[in-house]
Amino acid sequence: MSSTRPELLAPAGDWDALKAGVLNGADAIYFGLDQFNARHRATNFTLQELPEVVAYLHAHNVKGYLTFNTLIFSDELASAETYLQQIAQSGVDAVIVQDLGIAALLHRLCPDLDIHASTQMTLTDPRGIAFARTLGIKRVILPRELSLQEITHLTTTGPHPAELEVFIHGALCISYSGQCLASKSLCDRSANRGQCAQPCRLPYTLILQSRDRKGATALSHGRSLTVAALNAKYDKSYLLSPSDLATHDLIADLTAAGITAFKIEGRLKSAHYVAAVCQTYRAAIDAAVARCKFQISDSQRLALEQTFSRGFTHGFLDGTNHQHLITPRFPKSRGTHIGTVINKTKHAITIKIENQKSKIENPHPPLKPGDGIVFDEGHPDQDEQGGRLYGVTFPPSPGNTAELQFHPGDLNLAAINIGAIVWKTDDPAVKKRLEHSFARETVTHRIPINFTVKAAVGEYLQLTARAEGRQATAHWPEKKLEKATKFPATIDTLRQQLARLGETLFELNQVTLEGQNAMVPKSALNALRRQVTSDLSRRRNRTVQVHENILNKMRRELPTRSDSTSRRDESTTLYILARSHDQLEALLERATQSQIENQKSKIGMVYLDFKSPQNYPAAVQRCRNAGLPVALATLRILKPGEEEGGGLTQLLNTNPDALLIRNLAALSFYQEKAPHLPLIGDHSLNIANELTANLLTRAGLTRLTPSYDLNWPQLSAMLHRFDPARFEVVIHQYMPMFHMDHCVFAHTLSNGTNFQTCGRPCEKHRAELQDRLGEKHPLLADAACRNTLFNATAQSDAHHLPEMQSLGLRHFRIEFLREDLNESRRLIDRYSRLLAIGHQIAL
After folding, report:
1. DSSP readout, 161-207?
2. Is 315 left (phi over 0), alpha (psi -120 to 50) or beta?
């Protein structure tokens, strides 16, 4: 086990939460300002408050990490640069970023300021992390989808491993952070811009069709239900709402793995939540460092449940388990599970208390007057019955029952059914205890300080203090020391005075006395102590050099923008992504027709994105026979050890003409293994400004797909800054909303925990998730069994084609999803005509 003490990192959405973290043992606090951060719904802090925030944190020996973790658009770069300059000058200890271009900009603005890669960067493997390191990134915040085994692989792999930070508690996103477009697609509120509307917490109805077109289906592990029965079973369930992460029992293993920092999720949560979680994990980390076993106490568990809990899980840390991640019954905090309703009268409800310990084991009853209660009958989207207890009685008869009374009129007892689940949602006593924990200022992380006292008779008193490798010395010039007649200075008497460090950052460690028999005035020693500790505190303040005009310098380094007027007679090239053999057949037909007719709008290449890579060799050969260049699409995510299993080598062995790159690891891999192949960057690389575009072009990408977060004015702004000829714009596609390790097929259609035990129901059924508005969103699994939920409606930018072509764009893509042969033909014909018309307009 590593003896290094990992950092406990707490969230703060406001001052109360910040103080709760500081005063309950956090080593660092992460927080955002009112611009450019991924939690715009939090109260946050202002730029004007930032120096005060940093001063408060540093006065308590706590670090401050500022979140700048959104994508930044081209027309925002100038204000972002100014913002970053002021942030760097404030003394923050690190900045957390998502945007690759912003990371490069910040590193040049302030090379001495630490940069942390947000989990929004989706860095899941050694190659991606190594790429981030080239941008000046010191620490990587890992996605929550990695297992402990995969994390351990990352801590021990790579020539220059970065510091690694993992989430240990709080809400889990169903989609990979940085790859979720659901909120943008459904609500026009982008998660990559800090505006997530949390559509994952909404109810969905599972809609199934058997691929064999029969009415019944036989599923693995004993589940055998008709499709109609399965559809009814998962009607309006919270199929995409994970339980909350809790890893207090894994802290020792994560510490042994060499993790640098443990992160608590929750900038939208209360100060009570921050206090409760910090208390538990401070104890767990300290126990791990001391090599002691940690066992969570009943009071700690209650505090975690009462401050926020959807039910707790290890998430993916134990490996994939599709049966335990999701709680489809409810999407919101429930608190503590108490029991079940077994009887009711006009005036009271009788419940059976579950998992109740004996009075000797737990003398405190689970319920008391004033506690908040809710009765869960499986429809949290409707009005639920609940309220505060007026009275609780525990009958003497055995059976662990309780009778609950409420104020008349507080709730409708008649509406509560036998069998309803009882939750305690609020415990005022817990809340009061937690409030006390951050009501009084103190320093929880003190710095050991050593003092050397020079007290020689006939000389001036001198005090030297040493801490954290720094030294400060002060003299008492008023009078030389005299020989003591009764009480000469000793180590013990000096310790008594020097230990009075009050609310400073320091705690006394060692005292050394040089000299004998001198009388040392207490007032002199106290004054010198205050002077040297103040001096050491000032020296801890970090100052960094901040450069000017870096953005303009980086813009001057951009490749020369091609003159669009010289290319106005160029053909417009159409690229098509196919996911099925029918779609491939349609575009091969069209490619042959375009060659015969020598059309201005031609199919330049086909991208293949099949679920089964085994189908690629034959498909590639068909394209070759038709004279059509073919590219293969990589997976969106690559985990440790998946270069082979994830298909990178397999794709290369198929001898494609190009590759569609969807993650930084694939970019690095193919630059090393196949530098001759054209590499086209897909939307998942989040190219939202010219700095990121230039960075990835220099890294080896031939063409770039702009981020789907860009609307037309934002895309236009980037095209004015970076050569349009280098972009390939997707003009027709079904927005990939959620991309997730969790498999809805396995969760609902089998008892299997992973792809080895699920029986592959994704190959037997066609699935959709129907939302509250009746829209049926297609659900697909990829070659790695990761699920993507696509928007039900295709998004088309056909109306912008003339403008795009007038700006010099010549490369356009359409992406098929489930279109059959005839639908594919119609789409190809439609967009071929539109591009040809747009080309004439542009001329």
Report:
1. PPEEEEEEEE---SSPTTS--HHHHHHS--GGGT----GGGS-BEEE
2. left
Count, in order, helices (H) and strands (E) of the chain: 25, 36
Cα atoms in the Cβ-side hemisphere of radius 13 Å centred on 615: 11
Burial class of 529 by CB neighbour count within 10 A (0 to 12, 13 to 18, 19+): buried
Mean pLDDT, range 224-228, rounded to an integer: 53
One-letter identity of residue 596: I
Lowest mean pLDDT, pick from 210-224, 267-281, 444-458, 661-675: 210-224
Structural tokens at position 803: 């403008």
Q: Are 90 and 50 in contact (CB under 8 A)?
A: yes
Give the whole-angstrom CA distance, residue 296 versus residue 293: 10
Contact (CB, 8 A) for 481 and 489: no
Q: Which two tokens stand for residue 48?
A: 């004007």
Q: How far is Cα 193 from Cα 36, in angstroms, rounded to an integer? A: 7
Residue ranges of E strands in 224-310: 244-246, 261-264
- What's the pLDDT score for residue 223? 42
**pLDDT of res. 598:** 56
Rounded Cα distance, 795 and 185, in Å: 9
Residue 572 confidence class, pLDDT cut points 50, 70, 90? confident
CA 36 vs CA 16, 55, 687: distances in Å: 22, 22, 16
The predicted model scores a pTM of 0.93
b/e map 624-640, b = 16+ CB within 10 Å: eebebbbbbbbbbbbbb
Q: Are 123 and 97 in contact (CB under 8 A)?
A: no
Q: What is the DSSP code (8-state) at residue 216? A: B
- Can you read off the two tokens belonging to residue 314? 């290890």
pLDDT at site 795:
95
176-202: pLDDT as tens digits = 999 999 999 999 999 999 899 999 999
CA of 370: how far to CAs of 107, 362, 426, in Å? Answer: 53, 20, 9
Q: In angstroms, rounded to a whole number, what is the distance separating the alpha carbons of residues 461 and 454?
A: 6
Q: Mean pLDDT over all residues of the chain?
A: 90
| Mean predicted confidence (pLDDT) in 80-98 | 97
For the stretch 341-360, pLDDT in tens is 999 998 899 999 987 654 44
Span 233-272, pLDDT tens digits: 565 589 999 999 999 999 999 999 999 999 999 999 999 9
Could you give the CA distance from residue 797 to residue 834 in angstroms, rounded to a whole number?
11
The position carrying tokens 């959620």 is 738
**Coil/strand/helix, residue 172:** coil
∠ CA 71-548-76 to the nearest 5 degrees? 25
Alpha-carbon distances, residue 626 vs 571, 605, 630, 680 (angstroms): 20, 11, 10, 22
pLDDT at 224 over 70: no
* Cross-strand bridge partners of residue 395: none
Cα 196 to Cα 280: distance, rounded to the nearest angstrom: 29
Buried b / exposed e across 656-684, counting CB within 10 Å, b at 16+?
bbbbbbbbbbbbbbbbeebeebbbbbbbb
- DSSP state, 234? T
Residue 602's pLDDT band (cuts 50, 70, 90): confident
Packed helices 271-289 and 15-22: angle between N→C axes, nearest 10 degrees:
20
d(CA 354, CA 401): 9
Contact 231, 205 (CB under 8 A): yes
843, pLDDT greater than 60: no
767 pairs with which residues across the strands? 208, 779
Residue 526 is inside which H or E element, if any?
helix 522-539
| β-pairing verdict for 139-141 and 163-170 | parallel
